[in-house]
Design brief:
With 481 residues, the chain is of the alpha+beta class. The protein is built from twelve helices and 15 strands. The protein has helices at 6-14, 38-49, 93-105, 142-150, 175-213, 243-253, 257-273, 318-339, 343-348, 355-365, 437-442, 452-460, and strands spanning 2-3, 22-29, 58-61, 69-72, 82-86, 116-122, 130-136, 235-242, 284-291, 304-311, 378-383, 391-392, 395-403, 413-419, 422-429. Helix 1 runs parallel beside helix 10, helix 6 (243-253) packs across helix 7 (257-273) and helix 7 (257-273) crosses helix 8. The radius of gyration is 22 Å and the shape is globular.
């Protein structure tokens, strides 16, 4: 039995009915030129290869003391995890699909089986189909999630058969094994307390210095309509931007792809908030998960920290937003390096097992997030994906959209990944806080760099133009305007 880390256990205990904590991938094969996958072929592929991903055949084992553990079943009962959904018809298809994906994201996974599920979706126009893959965040972070999905794909349309080694089930622990694991977990928690307390002291000194360095701090953003207590309802929307266009913006400015992505998000949020809250008079705070180096031997679990970056929605010129994001991101990275790795995990180790579970439920029932400043206005996660095409049962993967979870007080997560020549944006949102997430998604490709301000600003700074164009919508689930 492999015990969960303090961070993985904290993620598990933080889940409530209004805060389901799973990560999703929406996979859209290219439609023309291939036989539709169909439910049967998806079932066969998952049945064949799920044993290659340890997180897909492990179930939770609660312990009387300490953190829970994973027990390896050797395989999963696929019929318990794979489901079939059909859209009603072409009318409002994008919104129907977003509502379906949101409903999948808003459900808590059953704890009596491995913590994942997949949905095959057909009924999309043009013979298109989709697969929605979902796994609990306590089992993988964003980077490991991309790796887990990749195990089901090939690098060519007709690859040779992949050997899949047999997996032996781990025997269920007896009473003595459970007692030993519980005692080991209790001793580990006392060690975690010491590590966490030491890092908290160091982090406090670093944060105090950050006040004079201009760093963006948590709880410093304005309260907006997108911030508040969550309900169980979810919706989702999707869009893409050309990776080449982002790179054409990046190169002359000497900024990173992530800087441009954050500036795109700032521009879209500015336009979205203008008729609702009005354009804020200061930057928003974006919480950005940052992957750290070491994971479990099999790539499972979580090892991330969080950086806080300013989203300059108050700046009208797109170029100014890019440069402002670069300055804030540079400061955030320096602060992150000074804080050191393992901070979030060590902080999680300070909380006695079970106490967080009770606290999160009380906070949800009392809608505490409605009365406190938001930790951040939005969560933005950007994970680099494969630069080469992937195939499944002969079909080429056309698009890969990621979706991260929502957290109390933050009704919007913008999850981004690259695949081949595009950057895909997934927008999971609480419709009780974000009234039209499809409209927000539709603003992404054009809002940041397409207005006349760009030309004049770029010209005055002797820099090339910055048009980011929307990719053609063929074989894409893109939100209606």
């Amino acid at each position: 039995m492999q015990r969960l880390s303090a961070l993985d256990a904290a993620i598990l205990d933080s889940e409530t009915a209004t805060q389901p904590l799973s990560v999703l991938g929406v996979l859209i094969p290219e439609p023309p030129g291939h036989e539709p996958l169909g439910f049967r072929r998806v079932h066969e592929r998952i049945s064949e290869r799920h044993v290659l991903v340890p997180q897909l055949h492990r179930r939770l084992q609660r312990l009387p003391l300490g953190y829970p553990g994973w027990v390896d079943q050797g395989h999963a009962e696929i019929d318990h995890h794979l489901h079939h959904a059909v859209l009603d018809g072409p009318d409002e298809e994008e919104r129907q699909f977003g509502a379906l994906v949101g409903n999948i994201a808003g459900q808590v996974l059953p704890r009596d089986r491995p913590l994942w599920e997949a949905w095959y979706v057909d009924g999309l126009t043009g013979g298109r189909e989709a697969v929605v893959a979902k796994i609990h965040h306590c089992a993988v972070d964003g980077v490991a999630g991309i790796g887990a999905v990749a195990a089901f794909f090939d690098l060519e349309p007709d690859p040779p058969p992949m050997p899949v080694p047999p997996q032996a089930a781990e025997p269920s622990p007896n009473l003595g094994a459970l007692a030993r694991a519980a005692l080991t977990g209790a001793r580990q928690w006392t060690t975690d307390i010491g590590l966490g307390a030491t890092q908290v002291a160091r982090a406090s000194r670093t944060l105090l210095r950050s006040l004079s360095d201009g760093a963006t701090l948590p709880f410093s953003g304005p309260r907006l309509s997108i911030n508040g207590a969550l309900t169980s309802r979810r919706e989702a929307a999707f869009t893409t931007v050309s990776l080449d266009d982002i790179k054409r913006v990046r190169r002359p400015l000497g900024v990173t792809v992530n800087d441009v992505v954050l500036a795109i998000c700032a521009g879209a949020l500015r336009d979205f908030l203008a008729p609702r809250d009005g354009v804020p008079d200061r930057s928003l705070v974006a919480a950005m998960p940052a992957a750290e180096q070491s994971l479990g031997d099999d790539g499972s679990g979580n090892n991330f920290s969080a950086m806080f970056c300013a989203l300059p929605v108050d700046l009208p010129a797109p170029l100014e937003r890019v440069l402002a994001v670069q300055r804030s991101a540079t400061t955030a990275k320096a602060q992150h390096q000074e804080l050191g790795e393992g901070l979030v995990g060590n902080l999680a180790g300070l909380v006695p097992p079970g106490l967080l579970w009770a606290g999160m439920r009380l906070a949800s029932l009392g809608r505490v997030a409605d009365h406190l400043p938001p930790l951040a206005n939005v969560v933005i996660s950007n994970v680099r994906g494969p630069e080469f095409p992937l195939f499944v049962a002969g079909a080429k993967l056309g698009h890969l959209y990621p979706l991260g979870p929502l957290f109390e007080g933050v009704g919007l997560n913008i999850t981004v990944t690259s695949y081949r020549d595009e950057v895909a944006f997934g927008f999971p949102a609480s419709p009780d806080l974000v009234d039209d997430v499809a409209e927000l998604a539709s603003m992404v490709p054009t809002a940041p760099f397409s207005n006349s301000t760009v030309a004049s600003t770029a010209s005055s700074t002797s820099r090339p133009g910055m048009n980011v164009r929307r990719k053609p919508a063929t074989a894409s689930i893109s939100p209606a305007r």
